[in-house]
Amino acid sequence: MKLIDLEGFIAAGETASELWERLVEAAVHNRASDIHLAWQADGLHVALRLDGQLTPQGRIASVDESNRLINHVLVMAALDVGERRRPQAGRAMAKVDDRGIDLRVSVLPTNHGRDVVVRVLDRTVSLLEIEALGLPRRELNRLLGLVSAPSGLVLITGPTGAGKTTTLYATLNRLNDGTRKIVTIEEPIEYDLNGINQAQVNYRIGVDYASLLRTVLQQDPNIIMIGEVRDAETAATAVRAAVTGHLVFATLHAIEASAAVETLISLGAHPHFLGRALRGVVAQTLVRRLCPKCAERIDETEAVLPLDDVRELIGPDEKPALSMGRGCEHCHGSGYSGRMGLFEILVVTDELRRLIEERQPTAEIQAAAARTGMWTLQQVGKLAALRGETTIEELVRILPT
Ligand SMILES: [Zn+2]
Known about the structure:
This protein is of the alpha/beta class. The chain has helices at about 10, 15-30, 65-75, 135-145, 165-175, 210-215, 230-245, 260-265, 270-275, 310, 350-355, 360-370, 375-385, 390-400, and strands at about 35-40, 45-50, 55-60, 90-95, 100-110, 115-120, 150-155, 180-185, 195-200, 225, 245-250, 280-290, 295, 325, 335-345. It folds into 2 domains: about 10-120, 2-Layer Sandwich (Beta-Lactamase); about 130-400, P-loop containing nucleotide triphosphate hydrolases (Rossmann fold, 3-Layer(aba) Sandwich). It is about 35% helix and about 25% strand. The strands form 3 sheets. Strands 9-8-10-11-7-12-15 form a 7-stranded mixed sheet, with helices on both faces. Strands 3-2-1-6-5-4 form a 6-stranded antiparallel sheet. Helix 7 (about 230-245) links the parallel strand 10 (about 225) and strand 11. The longest helix has 14 residues, at about 15-30. The structure holds zinc ion. Zinc ion binds near residues 325, 327 and 330.
């Protein structure tokens, strides 16, 4: 899917700054999350990440022209243009349609040149309501039950780019009624949230998650959001805060909800306190949504995964509609348009609490969670496929088997 003409750049006598403006504009208009400028032996390759997919936009063959573009980006981000051996990171602002766009620039020297990846943060994108996250009604009610607890720990897990931040922001937005102090610790702050105190990690000057969390706890908060738990002190402090009357939300790298328990314990959380603190885990991932313009019903015998385990989960008045995108102009031939979240919600019961305190293996926790009626990511995904919202092929691509 070509969204920008690079070949015209040199022929038209366009400056590096004009090309950069066009690239940022194309990224914002198409809701790309990142702009990639990567060197290969044959020049500088330009790509956008759209709906999670790296989408090549062509290359600039001339080394001089490529370097002009790279240097322009470095200057915009106030980085050292002469530095060719060390990685660098910086920020720049851009204006698209009169909106301020925040750009996070990362520079990695490679064997061919300096690769640049720019994260595009459009803070004016409106926040989602929790109801608009796309959960089936039963799952939405389970999530609302979790986040309305007065205290305790709620974990959000999933791979990078799975929409965890969107879920957390929608949740905080719901809880932000002015009666409770809400403080977040983020890296980076992706949206400005009105009425919420947001602190940003800054490793360069030694401000990490653990030191910020210590300070946040002195600020008399009711609700704390921790962007990511990845060290022993943050893990232990988050759990302690949750058993001492705070409602704590944190994200963690784990694919399945049940695996989050072991991940947090191996990071440094005490099983006994974790058992007391943990209210639930939301595991989340994103799949591509079928294109509404060209989706066609297909026969269920064509499904590459068995669907028997979810057929009974579908409502009595619903007709299964397993579908496939033919590919059309609207979806640029891919058969997909946009993405949707899949959510696996583990709610901690007394039995699960005991298993966590005894540090039972993940498989035991998974089995107990299934007995409480938890739908797995696989099941939620198959259900979405049966409803004609995504495809089984997409599940196979995204979910571990
Ligand atoms: Zn289509």
